[in-house]
Write a structure and sequence with these properties.
By secondary structure, the chain is mainly α. The chain is built from 8 helices and no strands.
């Protein structure tokens, strides 16, 4: 129910952000589309008891993570409809170091809450994955959103609705991709560090083990 509600609320926030989408037939399509996706995702997720952990994380980001992003986007715009053509201002704010827009704060808070409490299966404890998810995965989400928003802002358009749709799509793809890539790269890095720390001990142990071969065999 939480996943479905989060997906449906995204449609509501879209109508709040985009005045052109409030036309009756457009609003019906927007809410109907988000409602159908919400029902499909929630039903499939609840019935798939053995859903892979990676896909489980993706579902959480597409539902609660995206909802947090949209709520933050609305807050960054002063809780008013969009008038500047999309997400370019938020991206510039992060790149220039003038602050952390609520868009990113909302995404991190809601997305991490979904991964902690709303997974279909428990987190894989006892591995490097959880640490990698909280570190590299979160950094990847932020970096991916910035990259996706920047790419979307390169498309010149006078339509606020088109610009916002491109920005939303670009940041969603960037967020999910950044999370997956950042987590995996961090896992590899942690494994490499562990190997580097243990490697000298293996060398010392190998040198300390006496050879069981006779001298003439060694010469041969």
């Amino acid at each position: 129910m939480v996943h479905a509600t989060a997906m449906l609320l995204q449609g509501v926030i879209v109508l709040v952000l985009l005045e052109p989408a409030r036309e009756p037939w457009v609003a019906t399509c927007v809410l109907g589309g988000f409602g159908l996706v919400a029902a499909a995702v929630a039903r499939g997720w609840s019935r798939w008891a053995t859903i892979p952990h990676t896909l489980d994380m993706v579902v959480g980001m597409l539902t609660l993570g995206n909802l947090g992003m949209l709520l933050g986007w609305w807050a960054d715009n002063g809780f008013t409809p969009l008038h500047d053509g999309g997400c370019e201002a938020c991206v510039e704010a992060v790149q220039s170091g003038t602050g952390a827009p609520w868009m990113w704060v909302g995404m991190l808070l809601f997305g991490n809450a979904a991964m902690v409490r709303l997974g279909r299966r428990p987190l894989p404890r006892g591995t490097d994955h959880v640490l990698a998810m909280w570190t590299g995965g979160n950094l990847g989400m932020v970096g991916g959103m910035i990259a996706g928003g920047w790419c979307a802002a390169q498309v010149a358009t006078d339509s606020v609705s088109v610009a916002a749709t491109l920005g939303f799509a670009g940041m969603t793809v960037g967020m999910v991709s950044g999370m997956l890539v950042g987590t995996r790269l961090t896992e590899w890095f942690i494994s490499a560090v562990r190997v580097a720390i243990r490697f000298p001990w293996w060398i010392a142990r190998a040198e300390a083990v006496p050879s069981t071969r006779r001298p003439e065999e060694v010469i041969r």
